Amino acid sequence: RVDNVGLGRQMEYEFEMVGLSTAAIASEGSIDLGRTLTVPTDTHGFFLESHPKLKPLDTPTEGIYLAGSAQGPKDIPQSVGQGSGAAGRAARVLSHAEWEIDPIVAYVYPERCINAKGGKCDFCYRACPYGAVDNRPGSGEPTRIIEAKCHGCGTCVAECPHNAITQQHFTDGQILAQIHALLRDKPEEKVLAFICRWCSGMGADNAGTSHFEYPANTRNILVMCAGRVDKDFVLEAFRLGAGAVLVSGCHPQDCHYIDGRQHAQERMDKLAIQLERVGISPQRFKIDSVSATEGAKWARIMREMSEAIENLTIDNIVAENETALPHLMRSLRRTYEVPGVAESMKLSEAARLQGIDTPIRQMAHATGGN
């Protein structure tokens, strides 16, 4: 007699002999090894793959692959097949004298890094799960990014309190220009969503290919990881009058960049408190997880946020934005000093409708200047 968990009832069978399989547990020291190699493990101590469907043999650390029982209990045919696949993945790297990486690595502006001025800052070092940050606090030398180790998540960029780091092809200026373009007309009616490349972005695509219905007022901005979403991006969206803002990424345990999603959650939780204090209704800002297969969930989130805009009414949203504007401008005053941002703002503001103040003018009004 056994309990059939799938069917939810007890089953009875007659056998001449029953052999119980021995429980499989992770090898001793696997968790410590994972920490050394920057490969995450599950709650049982088995190593986690980069993505169960897109990269089932790869780990988040480039050049390390999984096979057999290292990933979980498997029989011999499964282990052999996975071992062959892992060997093939490793051969791709070993067969080249040089290995090209994606050109989306982070870069430090030496003149803006506080460590170059004798400061002691290690935010970027603590945010990077790959050990790609060469950080020497108090040495008088600027922090340096080891490009060969950088995976391009952008978490260190958003974590830097001095705006001293950028990410190639995902610079602050480029993302802010997208925000301005998407919120150019009737921003109070729109939901602006920051989505990650690996999960929520594919979840949004899944919603479209599966024909799930949701309002057409959503505007998406793609980043490599939710950890790249700087709080200034959200503040700028509300400064421009966005009706609602969503920050969406992988489920924390499935993050393609190990703990980028976790950093994003911590950062946005603090920002949510700040926004509520300046008068932005909490239902207008949300952070949520969507996997590549959760198209239905994506559509539901979009419907909920659109309903929040309708329930608040456009007039109330405009009033909230006007009340919060001076506070938002004060929080954003250093953003326009970041290299490349001012140039992007000039181009995007030149294309905006007449009668809308530029960030510089709004900043002057908010601070009482000319």
Written overview of the protein:
The protein has 370 residues and is of the alpha/beta class. It has 3 domains: 51-65 and 85-99, no CATH class; 106-167, Alpha-Beta Plaits; 172-367, no CATH class. 38% of the residues lie in helices and 11% in strands. The protein contains 12 helices and 10 strands. It has helices spanning 30-37, 76-94, 123-127, 155-159, 172-182, 200-209, 231-239, 260-277, 295-312, 314-332, 341-350, 359-367; strands spanning 2-4, 9-11, 106-108, 133-134, 144-145, 165-167, 191-196, 218-223, 244-249, 285-289. The strands form 4 sheets. It has a 4-stranded parallel sheet with strand order 8-7-9-10, sandwiched between helices. A hairpin with a 4-residue loop joins strand 1 and strand 2 (9-11). Helix 6 packs across helix 9 and helix 7 packs across helix 10. It is globular. The model has no long low-confidence stretch (mean pLDDT 90).
